[in-house]
Design goal:
Layout: H1 9-20, H2 25-32, H3 36-39, H4 47-70, H5 74-93, H6 101-119, E1 124-131, E2 134-141, E3 149-155, H7 162-167, H8 170-176, E4 180-184, H9 190-194, H10 205-216, E5 221-231, H11 234-244, E6 251-254, H12 260-268, H13 279-287, H14 292-299, E7 315-320, H15 329-337, E8 344-349, H16 366-381
Parallel strand pairs: 3-4, 3-5, 5-6, 6-7, 7-8
Antiparallel strand pairs: 1-2, 2-4
Helix pairs in contact: 1-5, 2-4, 4-5, 5-6, 10-11
Length: 383
Amino acid sequence: MFEPFPGNYVWNLGINLALICGGNHGELDEVCRPVREAARQGADAGSAQLFESWIAVADQVAANAAADEAAGYSLSAGAKFLRAAGYYLAAERLQSRDYAPRWAAYDKGLELYRKGSELRGLHVDYVEIPYEGSAYPAIFVHDGSGTPRPALVSVNGLDSMKEQVNMAGHGLANLERGMNTLFVDQPGTGEAIRKRNLPAIYDGERWGTPAFDYLLSRSDVIASKIGIFGLSFGGYHAPRIAANDPRYALCAVMGANHVWGERQRDRLKNEGENPVPHYWDHVMWVFGFDDRESFLAYADQVNLNGEVEKIKVPFLITHGENDRQIPAFNAQMSYDQAVNSPKRTLRIFTKADFEVEHCGADNGTGMRDYIADWCAETFAEMK
């Protein structure tokens, strides 16, 4: 993984994710330079300084985009607005819920994502998925033709957002292979937690089934070819949903998460890297708990033992051999227990792939493209 901040995994992860989401190396160098000394204080201690550095660069990129737009250069403006959106969202993601400036950065990121997509002529529909008396937001990425195509529901990780996952190239990779994608901000992520206070739950089929039902309402989706994809914590949710809603035609994960609850107890022993600063505050906010012991008791339910065996559709598991957040044995557990899947596939990415970290954070293309290829091929095999 590219590591501009030696020894600070959390900050390095943020920079790598920004690169994967279309960030520019020169702009990100400007983010890093002013805070290299602060990085040595640890991920939590210097996070406010890092935020300020992110925002300074994001503001300048947004100003450059506005100048392009004023000059009539819509495509150039759109590209810059999307990069700026990625930077605002990257800055916000690394902050505690109590850090007030994060909320303005998040709103700016959403605003510029929408504006950049429009100027680039991308086909992005903003939709609402009904959920237990409320709703959570999603974006449907399609080719604009109206032609019925297979579709994937894309499930976020613990701290990712629908816009980031799409900007990481998943929507385009799927479109190039004939598939549309519904990127969801499921409860506990993105707008669902930030704007609607919808916490994460262990039994994600409660929101995964409504996502499937929404896709059934679209004329540009083939009803018999709807699959589900999840990355990171989504590597827990997606298999659980496919196990409990057999209408999903396939399931694919980028980063297995078979015993996520157990991993939280490992983190108490400082085993494994955290994805964000202020980790315990973040995860309790995501799940709606006020104290760590109550959260840990709830998290004990977050495992796939007894669930993966119920999957009766094709199931793909990808994982990096040097995943420092979720050990690779999780992938083997999910594979070994998927005994009723008619096409179970395990692909461990190694140094030869130049992609060994959590969910491909050190590259961003290998797992993404392999998953898209496998899903397109598997859909094509279906009658």
